[in-house]
Amino acid sequence: MNLFVSEGNPHCLKALAALEATGVQCGVQFVNHDERVVPFLSRPTLPALALPSGQYLFSSNAICRYLFEVNGQECSELCDQWLEWEATVLQPALQQALHMAVLQGKSSEVSKVLQGPINVLEQSLSKRNAPYLTGDSVSAADLVLWAGFFPVLSDSSLTLGEHKSLKAWFDRVAAMNACQSAAQKVLQGKGLQGMKSYMQKQPAPQSSQCRETQPCNSNSAEEEGGERVVSEEEMEAAALTWSKGLNTCPPATKKQHPILPQEGKRNVLVTSALPYVNNVPHLGNIIGCVLSADVFSRYGHLRGWNMLFVCGTDEYGTATENKAREEGLTPQQICDKYHAVHSSIYKWFQIDFDYFGRTTTEKQTEIAQDIFWRLHERGFLIEDTVEQLRCENCQQFLADRFVEGICPHCSYPEARGDQCDKCGRLINAVDLREPQCKVCRQTPVIRSSKHLFLDLPKLESQLEQWLEKSTSTGDWTANAKQITRSWLRDGLKPRCITRDLQWGTPVPHADFKEKVFYVWFDAPIGYLSITANYTNEWEKWWKNPHQVELYNFMAKDNVPFHSVVFPCSLLGAQDNYTLVNHLIATEYLNYEDTKFSKSRGVGVFGDMAKDTGIPSDVWRFYLLYVRPEGQDSAFSWADMALKNNSELLNNLGNFINRAGMFVTKFFEGCVPVMELQEEDKKLLALVSWELQQYIQLMDKIKIRDALKHILNISRHGNQYIQVNEPWKKIKGGDSERQRAGTVTGVSVNIACLLSVMLSPYMPAVSQTIRDQLNAPPSCINTMLEGNGTFVCSLSAGHRIGAVSPLFQKLEADQIEALKKKFGGQQTTVRNAASAQSAAVPAPAVAVEVGTVNQVDPEKAKQLTQAVAEQGEKVRALKAQKAEKAVITAEVAKLLDLKKQLALAEGKNPEPAPQKGKKK
Amino acid sequence: MALRELSSLEKYLGQKKANKYSTQGDKKVPVLQNNNGPPLVGLVTIACHLAKEAKRPELLGDTAESRAVVQQWLEYRVTKLDSCTKEDIKTVLKDLNLYLQDKVYLAGNQFTLADVFMYYGIHPVIVDLAIQDREQYVNVTRWFDHIQRYPGVRHHLPPVAVLRNRIYTSRHH
After folding, report:
1. What GO molecular function annotation could you give as one example from this UniProt entry (chain A) (predicted)?
2. N or C: which end of chain B has fewer CB within 10 A?
C-alpha cells in the first residue's frame, strides 16, 4: 500500500494525520502537485492511496475512513454525516476562504466566509458536550475536520474566540502527535504561505457556490413536481416575521437630482450600452441593455441604495455621416432627429433613466481630449501607418462596417469589415477577400495613412491585475468573463484610436488634425461626458472608485470594449477613474427562429411595440421572462400570448384580483382579522422562501430567474385559495367564517407583497395594485429589506380601494394578425424598412427586395389599408402640431409603406426612395 | 431531487412505510427524522442508513476496500458531479469512461449504492448528450444502461435510449 501526497495540499494533511493516528502500515511518497497518480483521472488529484488490490482511492475522506476501518474503527453514522458535511458544506467555504487568504491577501474576509460552518460546528459540539465529534474517542471525522480548519486557523487573523466548544475541540485534536507531525510534513511550518503554489493550481472557487454554474444538474424536475418540504422552524420564523409589521422609518425617498454619491450609502452607478443613434432599437437591444439596466436600477432604488442610471445615444461615426448625406441633412440634424426617436421609444417602455444624454457634446470633446493627452503624456500612444480601404468612387475611407467581403477565417461571404457574423472573429478590413464598398459595390483600394495606437500590450499586466480583482469580487456574467479571458489569452495588440473622418471628436494633436477619434475609443467616454452633462460634479461618480460601484449592462458583443479596451484607456490615463465592478452581458435574443439583426432588418423594432396595442408593462414582462440570461433565447408571438394568458392573466392577475375581490365582497372592503393556523404558517414560509430567492437572485442580477419566483408565489397563493374555498366558508358558521377571513387576509397581503416584487418589472401594474389595495408606501422598503421580510402590511381593519382586473387576454386571432403584420412578412417588409432604420444604403436593399418580392394582391390590399391609416396618422399629428421629430419619423414610415405597396403591386420602387424625405 | 432519489431507494429496498423527510438550507439538503436518535442530514448519510436498516449491508461494499470505494463515489456524486459546470462535465465523462473500462460496476463486480446514486446524479447529463457523444463514452453508456435496467432502480427517472438501433451494420447508415 502506498500513499501519495504533496506539500502544501490541505487534503494531504487529512490523509497523513489519519495514517499516523491509525498506525496502518503504508508507504508514503511525496510528489509534485501536478503529478497524475491516479491513472483514470485526467486532472492531478492528491492525496491518492494505492490499495493492495491495485485500485486507487482519490478522495481524502474515503482514504481516512478506510485507514480507520482497517485499524478496526468502523465509521459510525454520525461520523459519516460529518464526513459528508465536510465535503459538501465546509470544503466549498474553505476553498473560497483559502483562495482569498492565500492568493488575494484578504485574510480579513475569511471569517465572514466561514461564519456559517463555524456556527454549525460550535452548536453541535456545545450541545453534545463530548470531547470529540462522535463521542469519547477520536474518529476519522475529527481528523478530517481538524485538517480542514488547520490552515486557516494557523494564520492569526481568524480566531475562535467566542466559539468556546469549537476551540476546545480544535485544540484537543491539534495536540495529538499525529496531527502535529502531519502538519509539519505538509505545511513545513510555513502556515498559509506554504500552500501558495498548491492554491495557484486550483480553479478559482465559485463565489456564490454554483448558482451560476449549475446548469448541467439543474433540479428543474423538482421545481415542476414535488413541493418543497417546509420545516417547523421555517414556519415559526415566517410567522414571527409576519407579525412584525411595517417599518416605522420613512419609505425610499423620491430622487433628488442631481444624485451624488453619499458617505455611508451603497453608491451604485448603472450604465447601459449606448445605442447607436441612427438605428431604431429592436427588442434585442432593449432587453440586452436599457431594460435590464432599468430593472436593476429600479430594484436598487427600492432596496435603498443610492442609484444613478445614465445612458444616451452614441452619435459619431461614418454611419451618421452617410445617413445625413442620404437625407440631405447635416449629421447634427440626423442625430437630433433620431435621438428624439430613441427617447420616445424608451419613454414608452418606461425606462427610468436619471439622465439620457448623447455623445455629441462639448463635454465629450473636453473629457475625451483630456484622456487622450494623459495617455499621450504617459507614453501609452504609439504612431504607425495603416493600410486602409478607400472607395475612390465615394471619395472616402471606408469605415469597417461599410466594407463587406469574404471572411479570411471561415469564408463566410457576408463578413463585415470589423467582424464576421458567422465565426465571430474580429477582422482587419484589409484582410477581407474580395472587399466591396457597401454603398456603391465598387472594389475599394488600399491606401496608407498615419494613425495613433493605444499601446495595449504595455497596459496588459496592469489590466490583468485589475481584472483578477474585479472579476473575483464583482458579479460578472459567465460570458463576460469567458469573452474577456479569450481576448487576453490571444494576447493584446496595439489598437488604432484615430480615423479619417469629419463627424467625430477631433484629435487635438497637431500632427493628426484632420482626424477624429475612433468610435470605440470615443463612445465609452460617453458614459463620463453624459454624466458630466447631468451634473458638474460628475467626477464624484467617475473618479471615486472607493465609494462607487459601477455596473455596465450590455449584450455580449460589447464585452471586450468594456472589459479590456476601455479599462485600458482609463488605467493608462491614471486619474483614479471608477472602473467597472460588475459586468452584465446578455446572450442574444432571436426573433421567432432567426436572429434579430439591424443590418439585415429582421425583427420587431422598438417603435412598433406600441402599435401592437399590447401594454408596455406586458412587453416588459415578456421580454424579461425570455431575457437571454446564460443562453440565447427567442422572442415568439405565440409564446408571448401564451405567457400573457397563462402567467399574467390566469396565475398572477387572477390571484391578486381574487384576493382583492374577497375583501370587497365578503368583508365590505376591510381586511378581516387573521388567526394563523399551521397551514397559513406553512404558506408564509413558502412565500418567504420565494421572496428570499428573489432577493438573492436580483442582487446577482439574475433578472429572469428572479421573475420565476414571483410567479411561484402567486401559484402558491392560488392553490391556497383553491384548497380553502373562502367563498364557501363565508357562508358557514362562526369558525368557518373566521377561517374565510384568515385566508382572505393572508391572500390580500400576499397580493401586496407581489406588487412590491413586481415593481422593477412592471412599474405601472405594480402601482395599480398598490392603489387598488390602498397599500401604505412603506410596504416596499420593509419587504425588500435585508434578505427579504414578508410582513403583514395590510392589517385587520385596513380599508382597500376599488379592485379591477389587471390584465387582458391576448386572443389567438389578435396574435395571428400581429404576427402577420410584424412577423409573417418580415423577410420582405423588414428588409424594405431596414433602408430607413439600419443605415444600409438604399439601392442595395432595393435589389434585395426586388428579388424576393413577387406580385401579391393580398398583401397589396393590406398595405393599401396600412398606407391609408398611416396617412391619417400623419395628418392628425400635423394638425396637433406634434413634435417635429415625431412627425418626421411617422412620415418616414408612411413613405416606407408606400414603397412596399409599390413592390407588392409589382411596380418598380423608386430607385432612391430616401430622396422623398427631403421635404 | 434528493428526496425523490431517497424515495426511489426506499422502493428498491422494498420498504413498506415511507420515511418522512424535510430539507435544510438553500441547497435543500435532505433531513431524515429518526425515531431512535437525532435526525440524519445529507443524501449519502441517509442512503447508507437506509441500506443498513433494510439489512442490505452488501450494498455498501463487502470488504473494507470496496466500502471505501463505494464511499468515494458517493462523495464524488454529491461534490464533483452535483456542482460541475458544462465544461467540467466532459472531464467527468472522460474519467468515468476510463475508470469503467474494465469494470461492470463502480465497485468492481458488485452492484452497490455507488451505482444507484451515480446513476441518479448523471441522468440529466446523459439525457442532454447527443447520441454521438453517448457512443463516444461507450463504457459510461454501457454502465448507465445496465443500471437503468437493474430491477427496481429507475423509479422516478425516464429511461434513456443510449445506443442507436442500427438497421444496417455497414458504415453507411
Report:
1. RNA binding
2. C
